[in-house]
Amino acid sequence: MADQMQWANALSTRPSLEAAVSDVVQRTVSSLTAPPDLGLVFISSAFTSEYSRLLPLLSEQLSVPILLGCSGGGVIGTTQWGKTQELEAEPALSLTLAHLPGVNIKPFHIVPEELPDLDGPPDAWIDLIGVAPSPVPQFILLSGSFSSGVNDLLQGLDFAYPGSVTVGGHASGGGLGGRIALFYNDNLHREGTIGVALSGNIVLETIVAQGCRPIGRPCQVTKGDRNIILELNEQVPLMVLRDLIAHLSEEDRMLAQHSLFVGLAMDEFKQELQPGDFLIRSILGVEPSAGAIAIADYVRPGQRLQFHLRDAQASAEDLEFLLQRYQKERSSDASAVGALMFSCVGRGEGLYGKPNFDSQLFNRYLKNIPLAGFFCGGEIGPVGGSTMIHNYTSVFGICRSVNC
To answer: Where is the FIST domain positioned along the sequence (predicted)?
Structure first.
């Protein structure tokens, strides 16, 4: 029988870091029948004072050629009872080991000063990453902060590696100003972006659940300046929005006071827009005298957008819709071996009022697949063919072999 891709995960809640490391290493290694090629580790911010001890402890017990990871506001993984859990604000450690035959694995650590000019040729980005554009690589990125140049890096990867898939997230600490950690083989970093390019016998498929539902109908930006919408459908944007809100239910009008967003259509040519076709962005403010609306992204004339609302129900329905669509498209193929989940610190129990919601819904549709990840300060995933940084989102990267 040909060498098969294998994927194992373990989550430990031991309050001692030594005990947690021993726990996850023993369980993941014993689950594999071949040596691991890649390790991914996520550690709870409850262990902030012990970040520097993690890699030495792992190296004592684990032999893996490439090991990446980061800190998170919470971590996600499989307990010793086989259940996926999302553990927030308590000590937890999640370790994933993958045996990846036929896959070229290239790790990298990039700081902003190393990034090529966005107007330069794709060769500069290929030289930076050190991976050829064919076969098309799949990327997992873990970033230190929004100031780490990750926006430019995402644009560069999309430019130099057309057709590639990129998932990941910003490492997070425990609350505002919490220290973060990026783990790269034997080194602990506090800034930049670490990542791995996977090329060859591997595919990463994505589900990007932004947790919103559309209201009203799509509008067209007829006049805009950078991130300011000056006209919608040749009308004053604030008047369009007020008219829309006036026709909502009482419950939705209340929700619009604090949970109103804009969805930017990412495909200019798609006629019928559905969940997953929009990039959700925050409304930063309004200018009452001009009736203009400022949002957290650039707009351009001709672009379509639709207002959205976010709450627990909308978030649940959005994820379920995307999972159903994914399952329908892959109904005859059960070759997925593992998955990663990058979820916003604003989701989880704080949004749903109960733990493990997103991961349990995922497991309902994709059964018996090891799921691991962490709660991020910003999530990385594709929408409409472009890789973006999101907020309030759960991004899933589903791993399968090409030759299955």
So the answer is: 35-236
Token look-up 């609350």 returns 175
Residues 210, 239 contacting (CB under 8 angstroms): no
pLDDT at residue 118, as a whole number = 87
* Residue 133 CB burial class (10 angstroms; 0-12, 13-18, ≥19): middle
Q: How far is CA 52 from CA 21, 181, 303, in A?
A: 13, 9, 47
Q: Based on the fold, state whether residues 15 and 130 are members of the same structural domain.
A: yes
Nearest-angstrom CA–CA distance, 333 and 319: 21
CA–CA gap between residue 171 and residue 158 (Å, rounded): 22
Residues 342, 377: Cα–Cα separation, whole Å = 10
- How many domains is the chain built from? 2
122 plus 144 within the same structural domain: yes
pLDDT of residue 175: 59
pLDDT at 272: 81
Q: Nearest Cα to 213, choosing from 248, 171, 237?
A: 248
From the list 283, 305, 265, the residue with the least C-alpha distance to 228 is 283
Which residues neighbour 246 within 8 Å (Cβ) at sequence distance 6 or greater?
none
End residue of a domain, out of 309, 336, 357: 309
* pLDDT at res. 120: 84
Q: Please, are residues 149 and 375 in contact by the beta-carbon 8 Å criterion?
A: no
pLDDT at 91: 94
Q: Which residue stretches of the chain have pLDDT < 70?
A: 1-2, 146-148, 174-178, 331-334, 403-404
